Amino acid sequence: MQDKVTLITGGASGIGEGMVRRFCAEGARVILADINEAGGRDVAASCGAEFYHLDVTSESDWAALAAHVRSEYGRLDALLNNAGIVSSQSIVDVDVATWNRLLAINLTGMMLGCQTAIALMGENKPTAGGSIVNTASSTSYLAIPGDVAYVTSKAGVVGLTKSVAVFCATEGLNVRCNSIHPGATPTAILQPALDAAPEIVPNLERMSPLKRMGSAAEVAAMALFLASDEASYCTGGQFPVEGGTVSEHPRMF
């Protein structure tokens, strides 16, 4: 990824921060895009990335970011579509405003990112192309009862990723698109639940056959592979980083 221009949304904390730090360490020219101004600027300054304020739900923000990338970098090689939120509301609790906001960030924002990246990557010289990596979840496969909007959005990421991948391939655009699927990972999204009920930590660790939670660095390593030329024959795929959580049948004993 040396000198590859890489845009990472939701990079101010958690898995996104792990991606920013890893890609910077690998020599990429990283743009950290986030709505969290203070956190994003701190992370960017600490590892040599550029911070850019972005509301992923805003078409005008994406258009402005595309113009910035063209003028300041001249190309985009990789997009890590990572911004996301949770609601912690079940189907009987969720209100329409919460549902719409979560889907706007987790799914519509990701779609806008794909649109923007495809346009920019098509302009790359001498050879058009690039890689899009969408952050989904282990809940893309296995539902949890307490957050219907989040589960729905992360299942939707799979469909979005596949559609983008096959469109780009059949149109000869040389843009790959894959999704990564983290399991339980200690991040800012999970932290409120851990603070409220620290006794759930052993339960979270038991979710994986490896008997531990993952780390942001481990998820970032998978994203790095998919963004790189080493993954040149990978597109439309789902890549789990969840310690085998979705592979194990519930035990009888």
Q: Which characteristics define this entry?
A:
Sc_DH/Rdtase_CS; Rossmann fold; 253 residues; alpha/beta; 7 strands; NAD(P)-bd_dom_sf; SDR family oxidoreductase; 7-stranded parallel beta sheet; single chain; SDR_fam; oxidoreductase
Characterization of this structure:
It contains eight helices and seven strands; from the N terminus they run E-H-E-H-E-H-E-H-E-H-E-H-H-H-E. It is an alpha/beta fold and 253 residues long. The chain has a single domain (5-185, 215-244), classed as NAD(P)-binding Rossmann-like Domain (Rossmann fold, 3-Layer(aba) Sandwich), CATH 3.40.50. The protein has a seven-stranded parallel beta sheet with strand order 3-2-1-4-5-6-7, with helices on both faces. Helix 1 (14-25) crosses helix 8 (216-227) and helix 3 packs parallel to helix 4 (96-121). The N and C termini lie far apart (46 Å).
